Each structure stands twice: as C-alpha cells, then as structure tokens.
Amino acid sequence: MNGRLVKWEAAKIHVLTHALHYGSGVFEGMRVYPTKQGPAVFRLDDHIKRLFRSASFYSMKIPFSEQELIEAAVEVVRENKLDSGYIRPIAFYGYGVMGLSPDGAPVEAAIAAWPWGSYLGEEGLVKGIRCKISSWRRIDPKTLPTQAKACGNYLNSILAKTEALRAGFDEAIMLNLKGKVAECSGENIFMVKKERLVTPPADAGVLEGITRDSVIRIAEAFGLKVFEKNIKKNEVFSADELFLTGTAAEVTPVREVDGRKIGSGGRGPITEKLQKKYFEVVRGEETRYRDWLTFVSRTQ
Ligand SMILES: Cc1ncc(COP(=O)(O)O)c(C=O)c1O
C-alpha cells in the first residue's frame, strides 16, 4: 500500500477519501495460477498497462511506474505465499480535497491478493450458468469512458448483477443504449454460431477484456473465425453456444438466458475446447503462450 507492505488489518484509508465519495479510482483484477514452475500471474503486464490507461482518462498520475507495480504485485503474491488466487491493484484519489475536482488530492495505490476460487462456481464452469437480460442498460461511452476500468462504472454493474441474482439467475447480460448486446456485469460475452465466434466490438461500450483477447487469439490459433460485430438480443437466443470471459469468470458457458435454453442447454463443444485450452494456457501447460505468464519465485 503506497509503496510499503502492510498487514491486512492496517490497509486503511480516511473516510473523506475522494474515491469513496465519487468513485474516482481505477483498478484491475488479475489471477495467479499454479504451474509446474511455481505460481504465475496471467498477463500481468497487460493488466498493469490497462490500469495506467484507465488512470489517464481521469488525468490520474499514479505515483509509481508500471515496472514498480508489476514488481509489487509479484511481491504481494510471494509474501502471501499464494499458489493461486486473485490480485486486485487499485489507484485512487485519496484524502485531501472535498470538491468534485480531484486536483490537489493525493493519488494512492495499493495491491491486495487473496485465495479465490471460480467466480461463477465450479458447477457453472462445467454445466453452464443462467443469465438474465438486465433491465439496466450498459453505461454509454458518451457518458463515461467504458474503456476505463474505473470504480464509478461499477455502480452500473452492481445494479445489473443484484437484479439478476435476486431474480434467481447467476449473471446479467446488459444491452447498450442502442439495444445491442454489450457485456455482463464483469465479463465479456461471446456467441458461437455456425462454428464462428461473434463478440460485441469495443464501441458497443464494452471493456476490452484481457481474457476476451486471450480467447480470441486461442480461437484463431484453432482456425476458428472470430467476428467483432454488434449482436441483437434475439440472436443470443438462437446462438449455438454462448459463453462469458473474464479474469474472475475465466471461460464460463451460458446454458440459459431468460429461461430459454441456449443450444443444447449445456456447455457446447467449442466452448469446452476453448475453455480447456484457456486453463492449459494459464497453468503453463501450453508453451505457445508462455510469455503471458509472470512467474513468482518463492524467494526473492
Ligand atoms: C465490465 C467488465 N467487462 C469485462 C471484463 C473482463 O475483463 P478481463 O478479461 O480483462 O478481466 C471485466 C473484468 O475485468 C469487467 O469488469
């Protein structure tokens, strides 16, 4: 936290922290996986790069270099003796000013890590999850930069996620203001149709997920065609397969949307193939993508 290792209980902030009031923070979510060579963080450099890009939308000057945050993330994993889990870097406007303009507020940065299993459940990874088309529309790029992984954006996700959970579903699919499919509360979405992958483009208002990019590259290496194009709501119902991607959700099949069965109503064969390869890649069992892994040595 702010350049020092602090105990979990001591990682505290002031109640007048700017970001607490206005959502003026940016963050990342990364995973560390066990490999034969010890724990490895998946696409660490890309996540830290996105953190800095997110910060730049809000003129936030993170008081550390990308390299320093990369090394800090590795250190946090090592110090916590984590073999697998989740890593949460965050940079935010701290305590200093109370107006909306954060000018004059210090920028604070912290990285936390903890053990965390599958986000949408082990069973969901195998059998697929049930989604609800949200009554909440995805924030529009003209109102908030959707490309930034900014704290305030997640109020939109919270509304969609809680609505879906309370209605007995696992996750929410959000449409954008044009009525096209955007993404889920914390995942990108892919549709399989006639052995081709289709996913909404960045300008549909989606966060360009790092898992989305990984899956696109894995799919193309399999010879699958991938199209970034707008998806109408009805196309979702007639998809052969549907799946979600995200650091937390990894590659999760969707078996049902609004009570309607998707494809065969389980994990489709293409989803299964991509999911299997994704898990091999993150666990270092596939040499082709080794440069996506940052290994954490047990000792410094
Ligand atoms: C809104 C949203 N979309 C998509 C994603 C997936 O991004 P990634 O694969 O980089 O974790 C996330 C998670 O970070 C997210 O919060």
Q: What would you note in describing this structure?
A:
The chain has 300 residues and is an alpha+beta fold. The chain has 2 domains: 107 residues, D-amino Acid Aminotransferase, Chain A, domain 1; 161 residues, D-amino Acid Aminotransferase, Chain A, domain 2. 28% of the residues lie in helices and 26% in strands. It contains 8 helices and 15 strands. Strands 6, 7, 8, 9, 10, 11, 12, 13 and 14 form a 9-stranded mixed sheet that branches. The longest helix is centred in the first third of the chain and has 14 residues. The two termini are 19 Å apart. Bound molecules: pyridoxal-5'-phosphate (PLP). The site of pyridoxal-5'-phosphate has 15 residues, from helix 6 and strand 12.
Alpha carbon gap, first and last residue: 19 Å
Can you count the beta strands? Answer: 15
Principal-axes geometry comes out as globular
- Write the H/E string, N to C: HEEEHHEEHEHEEEEHEHEEEHE
Ligand list: pyridoxal-5'-phosphate
Please indicate the count of domains.
Answer: 2
Largest sheet: 9 strands, mixed
Classify the beta-strand content into a percent band: 25-35%
Summarize the amount of helix as a percent range: 25-40%
What is CATH's topology name of the largest domain? D-amino Acid Aminotransferase, Chain A, domain 2
CATH architecture of the largest domain: Alpha-Beta Barrel
Structural Rg: 19 Å
The number of helical segments is 8
> Considering the protein shown, what is the CATH homologous superfamily of the largest domain?
D-amino Acid Aminotransferase, subunit A, domain 2
- Class by alpha and beta content: alpha+beta
User: Which regions are unreliable across 5 or more consecutive residues at pLDDT < 50?
Assistant: none
Overall mean pLDDT stands at 97
CATH class of the largest domain: Alpha Beta
